[in-house]
Amino acid sequence: MIARISILMIALTVQTAFAQTAPAANKPDLARAKQTAETLCAACHGPDGNGIAATFPKLAGQHEAYLLKQLHDLKATGNKPAARVNATMAPMVAPLSDEDMRGLAAYFSQLKQKPDIAKNRSTVELGQRIWRAGDKTKGLPACAGCHGPNGLGIPTTYPKLQGQYADYVEAQLKTFRTGERANDASSQMRIVASRLSDAEIKAVADYAAGLR
Ligand code: HEC
Ligand code: HEC
Q1: How far is the CA of 92 from the centre of ligand 1 (A)?
Q2: Whose CA is nearest to atom 32 of ligand 1?
Q3: Which atom of ligand 2 sits closest to the CA of residue 164?
Q4: CA of 88 to the centre of ligand 1 (A)
Q5: Whole-number mean pLDDT of the chain?
Q6: Distance 158 CA to ligand 2 centre (A)
Q7: CA distance 207 to 211
Q8: Under a CB-based contact definition with an 8 Å cutoff, are residues 179 and 190 in contact?
Q9: For 89-141, what is each residue's pLDDT tens digit?
Q10: Deepest of 2, 62, 96, 212, by most Cβ within 10 A of its Cβ?
């Protein structure tokens, strides 16, 4: 009887301890993420997550789930190559644990984006047409269908493009087109990009940068 009670009590103690620590362990460690962001990521993505140059994507205000997916995709694990191959980001994510990634995704998603602007007046019309309607003659869907009319994206799958650097967006569309970036589920972006010309890519990237 005494033995049964003490086993019960141990079980209860363990359960209570678990109930107390479980929520804390589930919350991303934002303080630790801030430190990593400011000491490591800031060199390229800027101290405020807005990217120090147009080749470094703005992470500020991007959807948390999208950022988390990218961090996982950028990291090679064991014998498995990274789903998104990038020589610059590979050494950055290599030392990050799953917990670190959760923290960083949550941290950057909470920062405020400083939006880029559209710079090319002569291509706004083309960019807008592709964004809003696509091109039925070549089976090109509207970007708005997945990334939203204002480019805010649709969590958790579709990233925000509003205000992102045009140069970065252009570069991504080109790597999707060649298949160098191939971490898009069901090839959604590779199919879209394969139907875009260089001129259309430039126009729609500039348009997305100016979306509000
Ligand atoms: C030396 C420069 C550099 C540093 C430092 C760096 N990054 Fe990056 N990061 C890049 C570049 C360049 C890209 C774009 C890669 C590409 O073209 O596919 C990128 C892309 C990303 C992306 C994908 C964004 C998107 O919109 O798809 C995430 C997320 C990211 N970085 C997070 C981080 C985090 C977190 C850190 C710090 C731990 C970090 N980066 C440090 C250069 C850097
Ligand atoms: C059928 C849905 C769909 C359509 C239509 C679509 N996209 Fe995407 N797009 C996605 C998905 C899903 C991702 C995220 C891929 C991943 O998980 O890495 C994405 C990612 C992107 C990225 C990478 C963002 C980053 O931060 O690295 C760019 C740039 C992009 N899309 C541009 C466009 C443009 C421009 C159009 C219109 C010509 C468009 N997309 C149309 C589904 C779509």
Answers
A1: 8
A2: 71
A3: 26
A4: 7
A5: 92
A6: 7
A7: 6
A8: yes
A9: 999 999 999 999 999 999 999 999 999 999 999 999 999 999 999 999 999 99
A10: 62
Q: Please give the number of the atom of ligand 1 that sits closest to the Cα of 101.
A: 35
Structure tokens at 75: 């990291």
What's the 81 CA to ligand 1 centre distance in angstroms?
17
Going by alpha carbons, the residue nearest to atom 17 of ligand 2 is 184
The amino acid that residue 51 corresponds to is: G
Closest to 199 in 3D by CA, of 170, 179, 178, 175: 170
Q: Which ligand is nearest to the CA of 184?
A: 2
Nearest to 182 by CA among 194, 200, 199, 168: 194
Tokens 């460690």 identify what position? Answer: 29
pLDDT for the residue numbered 3: 57
Q: Which two tokens stand for residue 209?
A: 């940068």
